[in-house]
Design brief:
heterodimer, A: alpha+beta, Ubiquitin-like (UB roll), Fumarate Reductase Iron-sulfur Protein, Chain B, domain 2, 5-stranded mixed beta sheet, two-stranded antiparallel sheet, 10 helices, B: mainly alpha, 2% strand
């Protein structure tokens, strides 16, 4: 059974704009993105929204629904009361291009700042031999669909634009952790995680984990282990002493 | 003169929504409960430190264990020893509460809890924080959170002492209800302590080759199971230690005086 739902949608360009009210038909089994597409088809043909797979795997349709970062294609209309007004806004941390579409190039810039996988010089491609247990920890992080909702919700940059140059954000700190945990990566990543990519800004309030549509345990499995590795490197004199006595690689 | 910075220009490119949040759920409930729970613990702890009814044979209140001075009753002293001698006359809790207190204060879970509920940084996800500036754990004093692992080592010692206290009470004939309360508390504290993120790192988290260290990897998987419930153990042990401590004090004061108490 269909019903008429009340929507408030952010309309505007370059930050200037307002919330506009719409009443739109909703049918059984639909998701928020379906309703936005119906709005485009019937009432607002110029409403801009980014989308692609409609299956929760491309990360394109990230938006804020009733104030929470969500994927439009994975948010069922059945989770709302029929009488509820549903507010849809663009991601709040990034500049608005138009309506619900934001410029997420901040994330691509941060991705480029991380040195790529660096194997030992004497190991050639095809010679890598790894046990499953050695790689499965970092495989969790490769589930990331780059929806950038963790970047969007992180208060370090969401509430403080001035921190953007110094903070890579949870998605890219997770990338650093993934590479640092890789058995064949030899690049120095601990010190740079703290000094260049702003790991110390993270106060582990776990919002990145809460919003991740792939349910990656970003904080527990990437950010905190990375913080502990930085402690090894920078703040633990016992580890330093051990590395001197036993000549272990730090 | 008002200076227009690149940041403020960039900020204006975002959707200009003036409300603090558009969330419609009761996002304030979790930080409010956390605030109340932690405040209760602080108030109780402050009272317990100065309360003198901390020992009744065979029980010693967890907030006052180990008792390390000659001012402690003889049965309350750890292994009968009093390394702090006569000069220390303050309540025994003052000597040792900094150790488990420091462990909880720097714990990754509690950091989340109090950053959200006390410092509102942020109070909840996608709810704007009230602070104009944020530097996180990059400078003093919050950079000191990195000493968590040292408190972890000390917390192991305290956890084992509380276990010893519980076992000592349990082997006492007849073993009363208090022995089981102390034992349950010690078990929860050990689960909380060994599920700590630092413990997870020390066992094998710092390694990149699990396959070369099968025993450490096994330990890591066990700690990871506890770690997945770290929040639950943090709260359960917080309340269990208060309950166990209060129970012993009420027995010592004679308020609880039924047989096998």
């Amino acid at each position: 059974m269909g019903y008429k739902a009340k929507f408030r949608i952010w309309r505007g360009e370059g930050g200037e704009g307002r919330l506009e009210d719409f009443t739109v038909e909703v049918n059984e089994g639909e998701v928020v993105l379906d309703v936005i597409h119906r709005l485009q088809a019937t009432q607002a043909p110029d409403l801009a929204v980014r989308w692609n797979c409609k299956a929760g795997k491309c990360g394109s349709c990230s938006m804020e629904i009733n104030g929470k970062p969500r994927l439009g294609c994975m948010t069922r209309m059945s989770t709302f009361e029929e009488s509820e007004t549903i507010t849809v806004t663009p991601l709040r941390t990034f500049p608005v291009i138009k309506d619900l579409v934001t410029d997420v190039s901040f994330n691509y810039q941060k991705a480029r700042e991380i040195p790529s996988f660096t194997p030992p010089a004497d190991v050639k491609p095809g010679e890598y031999r790894m046990q499953q247990v050695d790689v499965e920890r970092s495989q969790e992080f490769r589930k990331c669909i780059e929806c950038f909702m963790c970047q969007n919700v992180c208060h370090v940059i969401r509430d403080h634009e001035e921190n953007k140059p110094n903070f890579a954000g949870p998605r890219y700190l997770m990338r650093i952790a993934e590479l640092d945990m890789h058995p064949y990566d030899v690049a120095e990543r601990k010190e740079s995680a703290q000094e260049e990519h702003g790991l110390g800004y993270c106060n582990i309030t776990k919002c990145c984990t809460e919003v991740c549509p792939e349910h990656i345990k970003i904080t527990d499995n990437a950010l905190i282990p990375m913080k502990e590795r930085v402690v090894d490197r920078k703040y633990d004199p016992l580890v330093w002493l051990g590395s001197k006595i036993f000549k272990r690689q730090r | 003169m008002t200076q227009t910075t690149a940041e403020s220009a960039a900020r204006k490119q975002r959707a200009q929504i003036r409300v603090r949040t558009l969330r419609t759920d009761r996002w304030w409930l979790a930080p409010a409960f956390t605030f109340a729970g932690l405040l209760l613990f602080l108030i109780y702890g402050f009272w317990a430190i100065f309360d003198k009814s901390y020992f009744v044979d065979p029980y010693i209140a967890p907030f006052s264990s180990p008792c390390l001075a000659t001012s402690c009753p003889e049965g309350a002293r750890l292994f009968g020893l009093a390394p702090f001698g006569d000069w220390y006359t303050l309540p025994p809790g003052i000597l040792i509460l900094g150790l488990p207190g420091g462990f909880r204060l720097t714990c990754y879970y509690y950091r989340k809890a109090y950053y959200r509920s006390f410092w509102l940084s942020p109070p909840a996800c996608a709810v704007a924080e009230p602070h104009g500036k944020y530097t996180g754990e990059t400078r003093l004093p919050l950079i000191l959170q990195n000493i968590h692992r040292y408190f972890f080592y000390l917390a192991i010692v305290i956890g084992l002492i509380l276990t010893y206290d519980a076992v000592l009470a349990l082997v006492h004939k007849p073993a009363g209800l208090g022995s089981w309360i102390l034992l349950a508390n010690a078990a929860l504290i050990l689960c909380y302590t060994f599920g700590c993120h630092s413990c997870r790192h020390i066992t094998a988290g710092r390694l990149n080759h699990f396959s070369r260290h099968p025993l450490r990897y096994k330990a890591w998987t066990l700690v990871s199971k506890l770690n997945a419930r770290h929040q639950q153990f943090a709260w359960a042990s917080l309340f269990s230690v208060m309950i166990a401590d209060l129970y012993v004090r009420l027995v010592a004061k004679g308020v609880i005086n039924f047989p096998f108490a």
